[in-house]
Every structure is written in structure tokens, then in C-alpha cells.
Amino acid sequence: MKYVLDASVALKWVLAETDSAKANALRDDFRNQLCELLVPDVFPVEVAHALTRAERKGIIQPPQAIHLLADVLSTPVTLHPYRSLLPRAVAISSVFRCGVYDCLYLALAEREGCAFVTADDKLVKNLGTQFPFIVALAALP
Q1: 131: which residues sit within 8 A by CB, 6+ positions away?
Q2: Nearest-CA neighbor of 79 among 52, 49, 112?
Q3: SS3 for 91?
Q4: Which of 89, 75, 99, 74 is nearest to 40 (CA)?
Q5: What's 6's DSSP letter?
Q6: Residue 34: DSSP 8-state
Q7: Percent of the chain with pLDDT over 90
Q8: Domain spans, the chain
Q9: Angle 100-112/86-96 helices, nearest 10 degrees?
Q10: H-type alpha helices, the chain
Q11: CB proximity list for 51: less than 8 A, separation 6 or greater
């Protein structure tokens, strides 16, 4: 099985949040070679941004972000260059009025013909009918 992995899911590997157990089960499946995980190459930057924001909000304490980033990046997901995804991501963003970063993940899943797993319930709600390959992390077994 092949999945495009949203940064929101990978953050649950290192932050105790709702559905962290499901995110970790997906990570374990990847480590056991039961699935492939694909991401646009902006993924490490998105994860780093979210972790430093968690520090600023007091969710984690400095310098935890750098250590948690290393933990996330220790799982060698397959990075795909964003530049080839950008035209389609911009087109999706323009039509559906959502962020280009999210649309990079959508464009990758669309191109690869696989599911896009996200913990972003708003994204699932707003775009799930137009892009049926979007799968809520909560919906995974």
C-alpha cells in the first residue's frame, strides 16, 4: 500500500495528540515494509515549523523541537520534488481556495494514484468529496 503522508500525521509520531496511536501504527507499518510513505520535499520544513510553533505555544519546551524533528526525520519517507507538483497544486488552490502547501500533498497523491492520509479534519471536510482519495487518519484501522 502506498500513502501520501501529511505533516499533521507525522507530528503525531512525536506529540501526544488525538489519534497518535493510529499515526504510530502507520509509521510501524512503514518500518515493517507493509506500506510506502510519500511526501513533497517541503515536508521537513512543515514539520520543523509546526514543532517550533509548539515551542512558542508552550506545548513543548525548547530545545525539544530539534530533537523531535530528528525523530520524525529518522523515518525515511520518500521525498518528491515540489516543483513538478506546483502547477497542479496552484490550480487546486485557486479552484478550491485552500493552502498551496496542502495542495502539494493532494497533487502528489493524485499523481501517484494513492491515498492522502491527513489528520486535518477541516481539509477532509472541505475537499473530501472532490478528492475521494483523501483519508482521515481517524478513519484508519
Answers
A1: 106, 109, 110, 116
A2: 112
A3: helix
A4: 89
A5: P
A6: S
A7: 99
A8: 2-139
A9: 120
A10: 7-11, 20-31, 43-56, 64-73, 86-96, 100-112, 121-127
A11: 11, 14, 60, 64, 65, 68, 69
d(CA 78, CA 92): 23
- Backbone φ and ψ for 137, nearest 5 degrees, come out as -55, -40
Task: Spell out the CATH class of 2-139.
Answer: alpha beta
pLDDT tens string 29-77 = 999 999 999 999 999 999 999 999 999 999 999 999 999 999 999 999 9
- Read off the C-alpha cell for 29: 507499518
For 39, residues 6+ apart whose C-beta sits below 8 A from its C-beta are 4, 5, 7, 77, 78, 79, 80, 105, 108
Contact of 83 with 47, CB cutoff 8 Å: no
CA angle 112/117/120 to nearest 5° reads: 130
